[in-house]
Amino acid sequence: MTQPPSQFTDEAQTVQFARVGRPAEPDVPEPAPRHGRKRIFLAGGITAAVLVAVGGSAAYGYAGEVPRGTTVLGVELGAKSEADAATALRAGLSGQAERLSAALPVRLGERVVEIDPADVGLAVDVDATVAAAAASGGGPFSRIFGSRQVAPVVTVDAAKAEEVLRGALGKDAQAMKMPAVTFSGTTPKAVHPKPGKGIDAEKSAQALRDGWLGIHPVPVPLVEVHPATSAEQVDKLVADLARPAVAAPVTVTTERGTVTVPPAAIAKSLVLTADKTGRINPRVDEKKLRAALAGPLGTVEVAAKDATMALKAGKPTVVPGVDGHRLDTGKLSTDLLAVLPKADGRTVAGTMTTAKPKVTAEAVAKLGVKEKVSTFTTQFSGGLSSARSQNIVLVSKEAKGAFVMPGATFSLNTHTGERSYPQGYKDAPTIVGGKLVPGAGGGVSQFVTTLFNATYYAGLEDVEHKPHSYYFSRYPAVIESTIYPPHLDFRFRNNTPYGVLIDTSYTSSSITVSIWSTKIYDSVKTEWGPRRNVTQPQTKYLEPGPDCLETSGLPGFSQDAWRIFRKDGKETKREKFSWTYQAEPRFICAKPPA
Known about the structure:
There is one protein chain. With 594 residues, this protein is α+β, with helices and mostly antiparallel strands. Among the domains are: 7-60, no CATH class; 232-364, Ubiquitin-like (UB roll) (Roll); 367-525 and 568-576, no CATH class. It contains 17 helices and 36 strands. A hairpin with a 2-residue loop joins strand 34 (556-567) and strand 35. The N and C termini lie far apart (138 Å). Mean pLDDT is 86; it is low at 1-63.
């Protein structure tokens, strides 16, 4: 151990020299020559001087927490405290921002791609790097005289790196064939897995850490990737779960009655597919289960009714919603998994819940349905005894009281459902293939035209309508609409912040539609352009019979119409509608003349 310099004079050891060629006389020590003493003291002085220098340099070398001569990425950190070194390193890195953010070439198999370091979380951990630099010094001499370059501590987001590299792998990737159990009807089928070629998250992250600031491109290894579920496990899943699951129905008991879950519904809702790692976690999909049980659930469930608005004594009145009853299919989906592997005891206790209306009375009351904003009437002939008139009245009753929330789109086909004989509609003339033929619901187009005009003059947004192929004088030209489900519908959007209530009424010769809401515009009116490109009807002969309907023929023409909005005394908007009517032939139910 090196002693402090002060001890060299006070506690110097005795040094003895033996005279060469003469016996030693141990009892009488011979004084050393004067020049010998001088050498002794000179040697001691040199040693002391060296040790003093060493001690002073040691203090110099240990100044600060980071050894002198230490650099990281060219940034001098030596002789600094760790806090000062961290500040210096951050400043130095900011000066190298362009280098550190430059695209990084990466070799993936046979391809070289470039990735953004920020996309994979590549960064220098300043605090960890400074700590490593502070611990990098060796002995005192190395701390005094040495210089060292300390590698930075690099961090990377392994999950992001895997995602980016997997996407960049492109055609060099070989996807794993994922295991699964599928159903053909109620027959389970095993899908065995196969390995693929891809990215190992940890190995890829390490390669990026090691190579980011080194030699490019960075080689990232491709590895064989195996799904987490083996072929043997798939076969066991078929034997233990899939096959017994569809061997018999499951009975669900509730306080409102029982529901039978048939094997077909089980097969449709039992999910035995793998996640991205290839692991199969059996589950019953609630949405698929509910869809498969749409019929059976009707015996125990009652749908909630939303609050709405209705006219009572000629005034808009809020109609409160009504609670419903609903089977908790979320809980049932979980409970089914416990009984599906069983051959016996396939009964589950179902839980009924209260289904609350989505729209409350309080919400409806705030929607501003307070006044009639538009009304439109069209005339029909034949009285209420004709099939056509009865169809018009029937569809008007189905649409009466429809309530449209702000932002919602109303579809007449969706609202009324199928319009056919079972619903009470009768045969009346309809246009099919350019000629009039009897069809269920003939005449409904007159109601559609009336409803279209009511929403049109209320200023509501037109979403879908189609004028007739031929012009009928009972309708306003261009501003009218036909309907033919499922190909043609009438739809409008409530593009106001207020609720919209549809009201209908009829007489023996007319149909009226009124829209109740809050009035936005001073007026909505129509301006028509002149008719142009007028064409005359041709005469056509049809095979005589009960389905043949004669017509007198109508001219065809093109015409434009503008919907004009006025508010606060000014025109605020105008919309153009255009249509071309074909000339309706003069149909004669007879054989052509010779």
